[in-house]
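Duplicate of #3305? Posting structure anyway:
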């Protein structure tokens, strides 16, 4: 999708207007028809300003509709409402401040991480708390493995751990996350779903925290949307994996992540705006753009002497996602000069691997 300058600015303003409505609770109220006067009263905001803002969003997006008699509502159902909130929390609220500071970041990229709003990013991953949502493919795979001990690096709101614990009564698990707002959410979910005696949530950097907890019963290490944060410099991801192998040698690592479009350094696929948006925030937030192919991910694993055992792949919500089953080495590798690929690095030689399956 391409836009001229007018359409680009229109899209930018639409996203900001939608995010303001989301933060005010107005989007939630627009699940039913409302006039701007009613909505302004509900939300305690200026109705003279709210009217043109709502009309702008109606005119420029497909998310709001007007009944032609001054009332407006969201066009979509519950599932799409949750997705809209997730997208706004993540990309406008969470990563938006980093994008707004891009001119500065292009000179001083080390500030990228600090500009991400941790509370809005946490809200994006809070999810529903009642266990009524469908279980993720990643959780299904781990349930199928029948493990009794899991540690999740960057556990977010602990939805996956709770889903696994619900299906595996013998399971004990530890989830680690560095964002205090996320840790609080995860603890609430674990408590509310009755798993407080089996799932422990630890606050801290995932690898640092592993050194302080008992890892005896851990068979499976889960890294779901976690390893994509370590591609700023060539070798970062392999270095993390080497350290992980030293702490949990021989364990099965389940990597659930995505293939980028901007990570190959070989041009842009214009067909997937969702992936391009995510790649961009990876870059500006200092995480780096993760690899765009299974072979490049396999190169990072082999840079830590870890072995890619199995590949599941599927496209969801405009993103090419995967689950890789990786065996960590019994004895951790020492650092290499190349240390695996970084973004815009030459792709490594393909590792031997089984045929991909759809998940
Ligand atoms: C994209 S979210 C994924 C959450 C969850 N694993 C999921 O799949 O829904 C990434 C999470 O990793 C956490 N995180 C990032 N870097 C971390 C680190 N070095 N140590 C621990 N947690 C980290 C973030 O706070 C965030 O909650």
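Output from current build:
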């Amino acid at each position: 999708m391409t836009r001229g300058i007018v359409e680009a600015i229109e899209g930018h303003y639409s996203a900001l207007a939608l995010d303001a409505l989301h933060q005010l609770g107005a989007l939630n109220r627009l699940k039913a028809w409302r006039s701007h006067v009613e909505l302004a009263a509900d939300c305690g905001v200026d109705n003279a300003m709210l009217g043109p803002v709502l009309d702008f969003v109606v005119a420029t997006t497909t998310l709001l509709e007007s009944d032609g008699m001054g009332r407006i509502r969201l066009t979509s159902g519950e599932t799409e409402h949750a997705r809209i909130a997730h997208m706004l929390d993540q990309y406008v609220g969470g990563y938006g401040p980093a994008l707004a500071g891009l001119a500065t970041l292009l000179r001083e990229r080390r500030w990228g991480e600090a500009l991400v709003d941790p509370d809005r990013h946490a809200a994006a991953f809070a999810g529903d708390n009642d266990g009524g949502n469908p279980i993720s493919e990643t959780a299904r795979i781990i349930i199928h493995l029948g493990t009794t001990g899991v540690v999740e690096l960057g556990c977010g709101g602990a939805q996956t751990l709770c889903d696994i614990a619900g299906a595996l009564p013998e399971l004990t698990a530890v989830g680690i996350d560095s964002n205090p707002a996320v840790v609080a959410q995860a603890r609430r979910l674990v408590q509310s779903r009755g798993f407080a005696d089996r799932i422990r949530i630890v606050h801290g950097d995932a690898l640092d925290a592993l050194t302080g907890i008992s890892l005896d019963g851990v068979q499976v290490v889960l890294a779901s949307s976690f390893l994509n944060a370590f591609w700023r410099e060539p070798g970062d991801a392999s270095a993390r994996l080497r350290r992980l192998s030293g702490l949990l040698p021989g364990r099965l690592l389940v990597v659930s992540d995505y293939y980028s479009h901007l990570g190959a350094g070989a041009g842009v696929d214009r067909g997937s705006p969702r992936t391009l948006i995510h790649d961009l925030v990876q870059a500006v937030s200092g995480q780096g753009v993760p690899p765009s192919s299974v072979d490049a991910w396999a190169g990072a694993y082999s840079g830590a002497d870890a072995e890619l055992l199995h590949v599941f792949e599927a496209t969801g919500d405009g993103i090419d996602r995967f689950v890789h089953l990786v065996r960590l080495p019994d004895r951790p590798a020492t650092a290499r000069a190349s240390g695996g690929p970084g973004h815009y690095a030459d792709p490594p030689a393909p590792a031997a691997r089984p045929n991909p399956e759809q998940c």
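Confirmed duplicate; merging threads. Residues 83-124 form one domain. Confidence is low (pLDDT under 50) at residues 337-359.
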